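Researcher: We plan to redesign the surface later, but first we want a full-length starting point. Tokens attached.
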């Protein structure tokens, strides 16, 4: 890797991890497009996979005290795995662009609804009924186009959980899908020596940014936290649209 590539990896990883450590999502969405500018999309995706998995595991464990405030995690994860298997199998048969556009549109509709009705909260009975479907949709999206974050983040946002409970919830789902991604990448021999070195380079600023983000999160409680989450989710949807029409 050239010095320029290393600098870009460090800055992109720091920015993505800072966002993720505050709201629980956003590392790949921020880091991958920036790193792809100097290394290409495939290298960027593989390089970010390990630091992102590590960040999810750490943030999930760091917020384990909030587990009692969460709900529907078993359904989201369990049905998400089922959907991911179906999506992966169907990957060769499904057109990628319409899936990306449809997913982005669905997420943006949810964002608009939440902005128009800021006090809207999904009831426990509604989420209990809807979680299996959302899990399947998120899994299908992960398996077919490699993205599930916007679906999960938007749905769980409707629970109106406290910040730590929200982070605990989404990082569990992202951690499971991230682990599945790493297993597939290993099986396909995608982790070359240079990519592993890139992952190590990305891991250093990821750790530093995470420690900073943990200090910032308490300052963004309540409505501010909700707005930041919606901002990151909206950014994710726009990134999907740009990728679909690139």
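Model: Full-length starting sequence:
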């Amino acid at each position: 890797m050239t010095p320029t590539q290393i600098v870009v990896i460090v800055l992109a990883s720091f920015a993505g991890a800072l966002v993720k450590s505050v709201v629980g999502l956003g590392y790949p969405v921020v880091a991958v497009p920036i790193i792809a500018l100097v290394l290409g999309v495939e290298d960027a995706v593989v390089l970010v996979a390990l630091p992102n998995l590590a960040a999810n595991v750490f943030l999930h464990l760091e917020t384990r005290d909030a587990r009692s405030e969460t709900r529907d995690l078993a359904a989201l994860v369990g049905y998400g795995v089922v959907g991911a298997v179906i999506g992966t199998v169907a990957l060769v048969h499904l057109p990628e662009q319409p899936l990306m556009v449809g997913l982005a549109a669905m997420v943006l509709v949810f964002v608009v609804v939440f902005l128009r009705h800021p006090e809207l909260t999904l009831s426990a009975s509604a989420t209990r009924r809807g979680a299996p479907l959302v899990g399947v949709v998120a899994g299908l999206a992960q398996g077919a186009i490699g993205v599930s974050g916007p679906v999960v983040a938007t749905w769980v946002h409707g629970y109106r959980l406290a910040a730590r409970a929200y982070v605990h919830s989404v990082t569990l789902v992202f951690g499971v899908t991230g682990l599945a991604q790493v297993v597939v990448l290993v099986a396909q021999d995608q982790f070359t020596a240079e990519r592993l070195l890139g992952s190590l380079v990305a891991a250093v600023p990821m750790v530093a940014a995470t420690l900073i983000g943990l200090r910032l999160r308490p300052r963004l409680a309540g409505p501010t936290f909700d707005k930041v989450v919606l901002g990151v989710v909206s950014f994710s949807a726009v990134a999907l649209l740009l990728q679909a029409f690139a």
